[in-house]
Amino acid sequence: MPRVATTPDLLRRIAVMEQQLADLRRAGWERDELPFYPTSLHTMPYEDGSSFAMLWETILSPRTATLSLGLVFIGDQVGTTNSGGDWQVTFNDTTVVASGSVPATFSYVFPALTLDLTPYRASAQLKVQIQVRRTAGATTGGRFGNGGAIGGAPRYARLL
Asked: What is the pTM of this model?
């Protein structure tokens, strides 16, 4: 008896092609998580100085176009006085690529950043730092004795 080759169902072929297309699209959206390391002199992610001090840093090889960075900051409370300040993200110790303020309201601030890495893609390494300083609030007492402190941490860091 002769064998008859059946052609695959058209809907099945379309489903396979759609899956392959979805796989290709997802391959372009891979993300790498980037760790940050605490560097505060107080061994806590808080600083109470009035000049910028580094809280977190990392060193990376910039092989992608952007760094997506989510941060969280809060000002300390000393007695009834709230502390506020500023934050900044720097590249290679000198270039400030993002900055903002921490209001003296004893509430969290959640900045979300997309930083352009294209000028640094030829570099072998790029240092990324998160820095804070106190600009308002108590100047004595507090967490470390020098007044209110500004706390901060990275929530996420993704190379896209």
From this structure: 0.77
